[in-house]
Every structure is written in C-alpha cells, then in structure tokens.
Specification:
Layout: H1 7-10, H2 19-41, H3 48-55, H4 59-65, H5 69-91, H6 98-115, H7 119-129, H8 131-153, H9 163-185, E1 186-187, E2 190-191, H10 196-208, H11 213-217
Antiparallel strand pairs: 1-2
Helix pairs in contact: 2-3, 5-6, 5-7, 5-8, 6-10, 7-8, 8-9
C-alpha cells in the first residue's frame, strides 16, 4: 500500500452543505442574532437591519425565510424555549428520584439564564410584542411539564393530584421561576449569582410544603 505524503492528499476538503443545510444555518444565525438584538434593544427596536447585520446576512435573505419581522419575533421565544428544555434535559440524566429531578430542573433553569441572559427580556416583552409566540411557548412548556408530573405520579413519586390539579401546580412552578428570576438572577449590572437560599427554599417547599399539618388540624 502506498501512503501519500503530499499536502493535497492529507488536506481536509471543505464540507459542502446542501441547500437545506444552508437554509437551516441561515435560520439559526437569524434566530441567534434576533435573540441578541431583542436582549439588547427590546422587541420594539430589534429591526430587520440590526438582526441581519448581526447575523451577517443580507436583508433580502431574511425575507427568504420569514414573511416579515413579526413572523420571526413570534417564533423566537418558542425556539429559545426548546433550547432551554434541551439544556435542562441534559442536567437531569443522573437524577435518581423525581424530587431530585425537579430540584435539578430548577437549578438548571438559572444556569440557562447565565448562559442566555437575554432570555428573560425576550420572555417578559413577548406578551406584548409577540403574543402568538408567547402563548405558543407557554403551551409548549406547560404541556411537557404536566406530562412529566403525570409520569411521576404513576409510581407514586408525586402526590395524589388530579390531571387538572397538576396543570395548576405546573403554572405555580413556572410562575415561581419567573418571579424568582426577576428578583434574584439579575441586578443593576446584569446577570448575577443566585443565592443558595433560593434553591433550598424551593426544595423545602416542593418536598415538605409550607404549613405544618398539625397546626392546620388544630
């Protein structure tokens, strides 16, 4: 067997993307740029010009993928929401109980905020500037969350809640993330470390509750 020592034989040829792969790459860049621009300027001032400039694509290319600016903005939060879910999912693989999984999910949410500091502004402003995307995001997250708790209820690791009650619980837990992130995850200078007592309080609340049953029963 003859082994060539020429540079041309060993050099890696550039990978040629298919048209579909190129389109996917452009959309990823546009979504990434849109997230940065909304995080920096807000929805109102995240213009197509700013987004395409940050993405490194022509404005004409933008309209090959989206009918208008609003279509992109309505898709932005659900896309980042799915990225968040994927990020959190990788963190719970080693958890042995449903309680441990939920505590890990909670911590992972705040870790995601550190890595994606623009997320909170994208979420908070979406209700006004991208209501379709906002509702889609809430539906995606809450539906998946309810499904997780139903699965945990089967082997008895979640209390005896009805399906309707589990939906209520999910929105309580989602609301806790929203309010606690505003209170503890961001300061005047931007993202900040979340105090450990936030995590310990959350774990106590979901594991043992708030009120003592003996006191309730009198």
């Amino acid at each position: 067997m003859v082994i060539s020592t020429s540079k041309t034989a060993t050099a890696k040829r550039p990978v040629k993307l298919t048209r579909s792969e190129k389109n996917d790459d452009v959309k990823r860049r546009l979504f990434g740029a849109a997230a940065k621009m909304v995080g920096r300027y807000g929805y109102a001032d995240a213009s197509v010009a700013r987004i395409t400039d940050a993405a490194g694509v022509a404005q004409g290319t933008f309209y090959n993928h989206f009918e208008n600016r609003q279509e992109l903005l309505d898709q932005l939060l659900p896309v980042i929401g799915q990225q968040m879910v994927a990020f959190i999912r990788t963190r719970i693989e080693q958890a042995s109980s449903e309680l441990e999984k939920e505590v890990t999910r909670f911590r992972a949410f705040f870790d995601f905020l550190k890595e994606t500091p623009e997320f909170l502004r994208i979420l908070n402003e979406a209700e006004v500037y991208a209501p379709t995307g906002y509702q889609h995001h809430l539906d995606n997250i809450s539906t998946a969350y309810v499904r997780l708790l139903k699965r945990a209820r089967g082997p008895g690791q979640v209390g005896d809640y009805t399906d309707e009650e589990l939906e209520v619980i999910v929105h309580v837990l989602m609301g806790a993330r929203g309010y606690l992130s505003r209170r503890y995850a961001y300061g005047e200078d931007g993202p900040q470390a979340v105090p450990e007592h936030v995590f310990s309080a959350y774990e106590k609340l979901i594991s043992v509750g708030l009120f003592n049953k003996a006191d309730v029963l009198g």
